[in-house]
Amino acid sequence: MKHPDDDNELFNRLEAEIAADSTSDVVDLNKARSARAESADLNADRSADSQPTESADPGAGESDDSAPTLVDRRAPTRSGPGVIDRIRDSKRLDVLPAWVKSGAEFKDAMKWLAGHVGHTIAFHAVRVPFLYVPKLIWRSPRGLINALARVGRWSVDAEGEPLRQAEARRENSELYLKLSRQRDRRVRLRMLVTLLGALVTGGTALFLVYGAEPGTQFIAAAVAMLGLGWLGAPADAPLGTRAVIKTEVQKLTSDIVVKAMASIGIGQIASAVAKGGDGIKFVSPITREGPGWRADIDLPLGVTVADVADRRARLASGLRRPLGCVWPDADPNEHEGRLILWVGDRDLSKTGIVKWQLASARRHDVFKRVPFGLDPRGRAQSVPLIQHNVLIGSQPGQGKTASVRVLACGAALDPSVELWLHENKGTGDLDSLACVSHRFVSGIDDDSIKYAADSLKLLREEVMRRAAAIKKLPRDLCPDKRITREIANKRSLKLWPLLAVFDECQNLFAHAKYGKQAGEDAEFIIKLGRALGVILVLATQRPDKDSLPTGISGNVSIRFCLRVAGQVENDMILGTSAYKNGVRATAFRPEIDAGNGYLGGAAPLPVVVRTAYLDDNATHAIAQRAHALRKAENTLSGFALGEDDETTAGPSYDLLADVAAVVPVSEERVWNERIAARLAELRPEVYGGWKGENVTSALKPHGIKTTGIAGTTDDGARTTRRGIVREDLMKAIAERDENRGAA
């Protein structure tokens, strides 16, 4: 039997559910109650039919009418993480702004503040004797009249006259009489004060005229004159002008952002704004960041930052700001719907020339990042070179070679770096750095292209040599099997960083004779040379599959793309799907945005960077400092020393002559391990670290075979080891010299 309160409970629960769902249809509650009762009776019948007729437990068949089972009752669920968990997972805001914690940004801010204050002081100081003082003297008679007029009006209570006249016109005699009596009391007191003031002023004037020192008289006259001049200034003609005229920029507010976001053509945003819901959520207040405003926004469900970046021009229109002021970015530490909208005070292209941070530096460590430029928020951006390769692309005249020059200068300031520069345009953009280059060429002719192709061939051999050398290094010196500063400083290992620049590389890779092999060599170097200290910097103005092989563009880790024409070129430089993801260098304007580009690989997400600019004079000054530094540390080589290094990838030496020098005539047969030890003593910078197998592989191309040679060890034990016969060595030297003479 059902309890009478059951229906009431069901009725109340149903009513609550209907009230909670505002979109539900109107329901007849009586019909709903009847249907719910029939459903409960039917379930009870089914439950009774399914139970056995007899039970071992006598109480099992008894029904509990006081506690009916509701099939639609919701199971209890956890409400979510606890308070401690929510606090632990919350994001803590920085105690100090980012520019305060950054030494470079703080220094720049203080430098700007000092310059601003200094300019203001200098601006007004120059105008004080020639403009401000004459103005005050000219206005002093008018100031005297104004002062007397103000004192007179105050004495007779002239400011209350309009009120008394108004009450007289209203014929409010009682209030008018009260105001008149108040005026009489004021005038009596004020006239007394005015008279006393006049007597004091007159006495002071007589004292200054007849009893004061000339210096005191001059000071008093000057103060009086300047004070009266200040009182005589017209309201619409202030004494001084502004030293700095601020550009009035509209403050970014949430209403402006919401309206602009609703106008960019994304349906989810427009519908969320129209309904007045939480489609756009500001996760923190809109604040100033650098020279602009920053808004952190959670976009509606299903909308990504790439969708907004794809409509950047519409967003700029909605904000009524120039395109170069509006920069929507993603937050790498949050979900894909977290938008960081930064709106600058002025167009990025109008920030002027960006000064390079190392322009006045004496040296730089290439194992640290090389300063590259500034992002739209004014934050310094840098590029890591060690364990990376760099690809730069753009249309002609957009700042590609200037970007290459910045990276090359950064490497030049490290005396341990070996520079190979190839400028296959022939305009001499990198000529200033020739004095610190191991290999250098500038030209577009076939000989210059061949020289660049030979460099890639030599680099491939150098990569193979370095791989074998690193393999033999002890684990405590090279635990990760990659070049470190400690390894680079050991000159005997010949494992210093090597930076090879190929500007206008499309002229090399698209060459009919040398292009195919050059592309294969470059791909090999990019894939294997990264950990071995060999760095390629490639720059092109025609990024396509013919002039930039896909094996190269697909394996480069650092990418910088200035203005390009279309999606294909954009993705060739920045990577597949970059255009689809909203990273579009096609949005940069020709010439106006020269020097602006997307930098990928140097940060978690691609970022817009305005590169620092070094003209030829600045580059020459840096090159001279780098040359002096390298000369002092004895690291100049190759082209910088006037050597014509066409066939070797390191300092030139004659292997056969060196072996002959360490194997005397009296020693007809000698072990290779002893030759290696003697060579290391002769030229440690060349043969340091060599072992017997290195001698074997080095002599093999010259036709000198190794054989088993019996001998005595340093301990006096007789044994047989691999070695050479001196007669074979001298025969190889004679044949080589004969061939050279014939040539």
What's the number of helices? 25
Low-confidence segments: 20-25, 46-66, 645-652
Structural class: alpha/beta
Count the beta strands.
Answer: 18
Mean of residue pLDDT values: 82
The percent of residues in helical segments reads 40-55%
Q: What fraction of the residues are assigned to beta strands by DSSP? A: 5-15%
The 3D shape can be described as elongated
Report the span from N to C terminus. Answer: 120 Å
How would you explain this protein's 3D organization?
- It is a single chain.
- The protein is built from 25 helices and 18 strands.
- Helix 6 runs antiparallel to helix 7.
- By secondary structure, it is of the alpha/beta class.
- Strands 7-6-15-14-13-8-12-11-9-10 form a ten-stranded mixed sheet. Strands 1, 2, 3, 4 and 5 form a five-stranded antiparallel sheet that branches. A three-stranded antiparallel sheet has the order 16-18-17.
- The chain starts with a helix and ends with a helix.
Question: Quick recap of the structure?
Answer:
This protein has 743 residues and is of the alpha/beta class. The protein is built from 25 helices and 18 strands.
Give short descriptive properties of this protein:
743 residues, alpha/beta, five-stranded antiparallel sheet, elongated
